[in-house]
């Protein structure tokens, strides 16, 4: 979270400064009068001031946070019991899973070496619109744990999870006609047998996923976050928190990482 706040602060300062400078330029070149186009000048200026304010706010936030080192050997996906995905301010989409101290444990970002990766600068393309998008789930030092592809063929979203060597772990299918109001879909094994059925309880996205014996494998509650009062998370109000069942495999956790990443608004 410290790095996220730092980059958010930089983005706020750059964006705010740019808008303020544009407001000054607008005033001397295009401004005709408040009743004519003064509203444009006012709105740009206000957004610029708020952006600068956000830059100051998040600068103070990251300066207050302590650094808690994470030793790679002390964790692996098998031991992770929850998912706290946070977007990192960057030109290309990048998310990190952070622990209760706000320290990143693994990351999700577009697979390198593909030309279309550069087009993900436009958020429209992040979820497979127009062309399939590939993402790597990797440790913070770049060790790939899994890859997944998101494809939107107009009628449905198809997500495919693979091991680093290309072996398919599973597929998730979400019909657009059946998930317009709330997310629902089916997770399949690599042999196309049904693995899990997923359906949000409401528009907020609350969900419980259970196995064949009725045991909970994953749960998500919108607006409920157990670490909201801890220093790392006090500066932001919106959090996604998913808890995994203790009995599920690493592969199933990776499948949920893929699906919940897809569900995020970004």
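Sequence proposed for the structure above (266 residues):
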């Amino acid at each position: 979270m410290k790095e996220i706040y730092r980059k958010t602060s930089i983005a706020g300062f750059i964006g705010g400064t740019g808008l303020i400078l544009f407001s000054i330029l607008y005033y001397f070149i295009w401004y005709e009068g408040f009743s004519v186009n003064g509203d444009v000048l006012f709105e740009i200026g206000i957004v610029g001031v708020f952006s600068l304010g956000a830059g100051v706010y998040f600068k103070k936030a990251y300066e207050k946070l302590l650094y808690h080192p994470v030793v790679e050997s002390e964790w692996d996906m098998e031991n992770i019991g929850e998912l706290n995905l946070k977007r990192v301010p960057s030109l290309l989409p990048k998310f990190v899973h952070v622990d209760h101290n706000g320290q990143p444990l693994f990351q999700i970002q577009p697979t390198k070496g593909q030309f279309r990766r550069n087009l993900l600068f436009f958020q429209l393309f992040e979820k497979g619109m127009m062309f399939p998008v590939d993402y790597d789930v990797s440790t913070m030092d770049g060790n790939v744990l899994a890859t997944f592809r998101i494809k939107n063929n107009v009628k449905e979203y198809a997500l495919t999870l693979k091991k680093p060597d290309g072996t398919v772990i599973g597929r998730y299918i979400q019909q657009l006609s059946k998930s317009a109001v709330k997310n629902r879909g089916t997770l399949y094994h690599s042999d196309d047998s049904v693995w899990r059925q997923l359906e949000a309880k409401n528009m907020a996205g609350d969900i419980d996923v259970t196995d064949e014996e009725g045991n909970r494998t994953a749960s998500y509650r919108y607006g409920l976050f157990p670490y909201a009062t801890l220093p790392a998370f006090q500066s932001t109000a919106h959090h996604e928190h998913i808890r995994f069942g203790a009995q599920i495999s690493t592969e199933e956790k990776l499948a949920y990482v893929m699906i919940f990443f897809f569900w995020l608004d970004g």
